[in-house]
Amino acid sequence: MASDPSIAAGLPGGDDSLLNVPFASHSNTILALGLVAILATLIVPLPTMLLDLLLACSISLALAVLIVTLSSKEALELSTFPSLLLFTTLFRLSLNVASTRLILLQGDAGQIIQTFGGFVAGGSLVVGLVIFLILVIIQFIVITKGAERISEVSARFTLDAMPGKQMAIDADLNAGIITEAQANERRAKIVKESEFYGAMDGASKFIRGDAKAGLIITAINLLGGIAMGYSRGMGVMNAIQTYSILSIGDGLISQIPSLIISISSGFLVTKISSSHSVGQDVSRQFLRTGQPLTTAAFIIGAMALVPGMPKIQFLLLAAGAAAIGKAASKLEKTPAKTVPVSPNKKKTDKEPVEDLLDMDRVSVHVGVRLIGMVDPRKSNTIFDRIGALRRQFAQQMGIVIPLVRLRDDLNLEPNAYEIRLCEIPVAKGFLEPDMFLAMDSGTVQQKVDGIKTTEPVYGLPALWITAAKKEAAELAGYTVIDPESVFITHLSETLRRHADELLTREDVQVLIDRLRKNQPSLVGEVVGTEGEISSGILQRVLRNLLRSGIPIRELTAILEALAENASKTKNVNVLTEMVRKSLARTITEQYKDAKGKVAAIAFDPVFEHQLTSSLRQEGGELVLGISAETAIDLNRKAADAWKSAMDQGRDKVVLLCDARLRAPLAQMLARSLPMLPVVAYDEIVMGTEVTPVATISVAADEMTIRSE
Questions:
Q1: pLDDT digits (tens, 9 = 90+) for 83-95
Q2: What is the DSSP string of 35-46?
Q3: What is the CATH code for 357-498?
Q4: Domain boundaries 588-696, corresponding CATH code
Q5: How far apart are CA 460 and CA 116, in angstroms?
């Protein structure tokens, strides 16, 4: 999760912004001392004056919690409420023990308990017991039970909704609607919601237990007090009168703060997240229109006409409702203040001109028929898969691809999509949203009907078939793929093909900074202030590797190779070849087939020697000194050999050659055969079995060396 305090707190500015409040910086110490004092209260006798002070604190704390709860805009603003509930419950129980000790020992528990017993209960045992029992029933059965049930259901629904919320966050992140920091903040909020409602479900048990304990403590005070009074020579009726008032007062002074806390918990768990408090939401929603209140005023006024009903009270209430309804109607009719906007002025005129220079590094434009496939509200959409693709790309290639923005485009064909880099289209494809792509894997025995098309990645012939024909096509030997997978595969291969263009200098700096935490000496030696190479050269080396399809996850091995060779040369291409040798194991594993063998297209030894002899230095780079005719013939034969290997079902084939030839050959074949990797002999790990699939040769009389 995010380490930002504002994120962790779930509040604007985080908890750290509140440390300037007096005593806030010592809150941990104060809380610890408070808990120690509560525990001490259970053991140490308290004077009546101190008990009155603590009882007043209990009532004040309960009222403060209620007011703060009503002022909160969402439940997570009081995420510490379950812990606060435990603290206040322990506080009240400790006061119960202290007051019970004074009642039984002294027959006096302070002024507050005496006042509650005498004034609230009217000095009557029966009245006091009835009021006390009513309060307990209201708290125990109505408020606490309801809050507990709401917390239980909310926790269950929050947990069930977490996967969907996480997917929605990933969708917004991939679409560029939110930043990474905002996504982390939302994820932290989801986790806190589940933890909060789960904790509230358990904390409600404290209130229920407190209510039960209150009944038992009141009964003990009453019976124990009568017994103690009688043992001291008091009459039975006198003992009942004295100790009943104290017992009822103690029970009431304990249950009233508990009731207030229970009401606060009920308000908190029933609070719907909004930008306003409970009072503001109620007033805004009730006063949105005056017609309901005016109707209610007429009904209330009509009740005054019922025989036997108090007329004055109902008429006053009707007049009040009518006045409020009239005021709400005036507010409803008052037009909202609007700023006049010129009809010829566009929104973009107010935007800074510099914002128009921003471009999406990676974007996908879709036609109108494909909009449903990128809808984040639906499951298994392209949004969801793009998030998984970014994670997979980071694991395989060692770079984090930028956020992929999805946009609808009316200028495209309805079922078309375009993959763009910096707003420039680099790939295009067509999808049928409600159909499946069926490709002939070479084992098809029976043809199926469908719409002819071309697979976008490799350009192979394929068919769009309906869902009803999917099973039949699979049984016939077709490879059947859903349209989302077709798109993701195309996007993945396109990004892989252009991975070098996606690696910016800022991305390189991020990679360096991550490695610097674990290997500072290596990073400092290679790209530090006194390093052998600059970050620009490192970026070009990494781009060369990505252009060849080589992952850059092993950044340590790359930097070690550069550290060994950077003092000899600053030529980027030469350094790239040195790095490739250090990544021989990675390269070998990348091109192994299922049997652990490397399928290779090789050169005839004589032809390879002639190619090596033709190498020349031009501008500090090695180039092949062969004629245009020989180059064309070489390209054609390499293409035929690669196609033949593909037709045999070999999906991994490399062109194996001498180390001196690798770079110039790769440069020459990049345009015509970008998907054919060119690998040097010393880039294959010793002991790896190489399977020759074709040999390229040119007759001696056809081989022409370019003359200068």
A1: 787 888 888 888 8
A2: HHHHHHHTTS--
A3: 3.40.30.60
A4: 3.40.50.12790
A5: 89
